[in-house]
């Protein structure tokens, strides 16, 4: 396993965000095409053919990489949309594709043996045995792990993994075993794996009332925020529900993951890359997060023993976070 | 809001969004109001034939509200809308998808401050452009300008 400085992987939903990522210290930027082949299929977001070519040129000129997320699951009737996207990625000179569907992985491995494959978080592979399978069958070179493992589980997986490991370092949390969430389908009929979106904007309604901001998903009230209470994304998992008398965050609170506290441990265990969530966010977010994480990674690399999280890093990141707070998520859970 | 301010907003928005007409067409006919809450002003506009056009005061499909400072911070890309929204400094009511769509269109616009240089006689244009590009990179003028604006518009 590699024990050098992990790569910083930043999101971009458009060309300005891509440039912001490259200019502020990302080693690689991940993007998606403007269709349902990726898990951020939002109106007006993502890259058309022109933008993709320009983005790749911009990144390559700076010595950075572009990764393409093709991480949703094609269905029988639209299979060719996904395979065409893989072919296009190769033509454009994308450095790696991030995929989840085994059929698509097989297509890429057999038609484009030179293409570098990363296993998407949507594939939900949480054990090294699963990674061995994807490695043997499709020759994946890296896997992005879901945000549900405790640190012990993570170290165990890295130690036994046949491929490089990438973990989420900062951004909104998806608390389910990614790729297996059926919560959203229950209320909106859509899910990240099939439609590339879990709370489609057309199902979301906010209303400012005398009691505060009410968030509705497909007509169902999922939360009400008091006057100055920080809010998050309108996903079903981050709503407040009554299971007893008082409504509370029964599944997950609106908060963002932040791994700055455990960076030296991640270095020590040989993590290959740290990923920032948020292709749906604007260039201002990408620039700020990239700047902070770049500084943190460089600081940690130069002297891991003396590394300390600077308070201004946390301040910058918390300001951008859901609920304006952060968590270590499952990493700090005691389960094994 | 007075007609002059509206005209300035409409003119600038159309300039910035000139290349995004095909995307805007998908929002044809939708009406939006932007309320500058601390100034008590409202700006009504709509999408007509793929362009931004002033709209009469009345019913809208989407309402956006925020302070003058915060709306400026958004326009200058000093903040992203999600951040302000989480902090309760931005209000979005009505058809959320219009807001999201519009935000994504805006975010995809590659602001090119040097567009006018392109009209210089070739081969002068590209060379001057390259020089300016390099100068900006070396002096980090863009980042400095960003930081100055950021400080000036601190909430
Ligand atoms: S509802 Fe929550 S857990 Fe499920 S996919 Fe959406 S963000 Fe993830």
TrEMBL record, chain A:
Q: Please provide an example of a Pfam family that matches this protein in its UniProt record.
A: Peptidase_U32
- Describe which pathway this protein belongs to, using the record's wording: Cofactor biosynthesis; ubiquinone biosynthesis
Q: Which GO terms describe its biological process?
A: ubiquinone biosynthetic process
* Single annotated GO MF: metal ion binding
Q: Which residues bind [4Fe-4S] cluster?
A: 174, 181, 198, 237
Write out the function statement from the record.
Required for O(2)-independent ubiquinone (coenzyme Q) biosynthesis. Together with UbiV, is essential for the C6-hydroxylation reaction in the oxygen-independent ubiquinone biosynthesis pathway.
The protein's name in its UniProt record = Ubiquinone biosynthesis protein UbiU
Source organism per UniProt: Acidithiobacillus ferrianus
